[in-house]
Amino acid sequence: MNVIASSTLTVFHDGQFWIGICEHMDEGRYGACRIVFGATEPTDTELLAFVCTRWASLPFGLVEGAGIQAPPHANPKRRQREARKQVEHAGIGTKAQQAMSAAYEERKTERKAASREAREAEAKRRFALKQEKRKAKHRGK
């Protein structure tokens, strides 16, 4: 059984900050996350320290299926049609952007669920308090 795992760190300047895109592929699953290094360019030693200390704790949103490759012998027009269909289906962007988008959407749904539960718990608490006050008032206290 061959286990294939690869990781890359791409650092670029977006005009304001130095950004790192961390990509990880493991057994057909692909994940990516974005790290902001700041306004100054990170040195090689800082990048090495970052990889050694923080790489394992990065929030990679691993997604099944890293993409399907078209056979190299296919007709060029057919490959163009298949590429157009894939772009329409998956949207424009790199795999890293799509993986980060999927992870963002997952965190957003978790955050919505947690806030909904907190709101419902607060409503129950207020209702119980109101009921308690009504009972106390009914008793004449």
Description:
- The protein has 141 residues and is an alpha+beta fold.
- It has one domain.
- It has three helices and four strands; from the N terminus they run E-E-E-H-E-H-H.
- It has helices at residues 44-54, 76-90, 95-139; strands at residues 5-13, 18-26, 29-38, 63-64.
- It has a four-stranded antiparallel sheet.
- The longest helix is centred in the C-terminal third of the chain and has 45 residues, at 95-139.
- The chain is elongated, with a radius of gyration of 25 Å.
In short:
The chain is of the alpha+beta class and 141 residues long. The protein contains 3 helices and 4 strands.
The CA-CA distance between the termini, in Å, is: 75 Å
- The low-pLDDT segments are none
In DSSP terms (H or I, runs of 4 or more residues), the helix count works out at: 3
Main β sheet profile: 4 strands, antiparallel
> What is the typical, i.e. mean, pLDDT?
83
Give the neighbour order of strands across the main sheet: 1-2-3-4
Number of strands: 4
- Content of β-strand: 15-25%
Q: How many domains?
A: 1
Helix amount: 40-55%
Query: Any idea what the radius of gyration is?
Result: 25 Å
Spatial shape: elongated
Order of helices and strands: EEEHEHH
SSE class: alpha+beta
Pfam family, one: DUF2992
Protein name: DUF2992 domain-containing protein
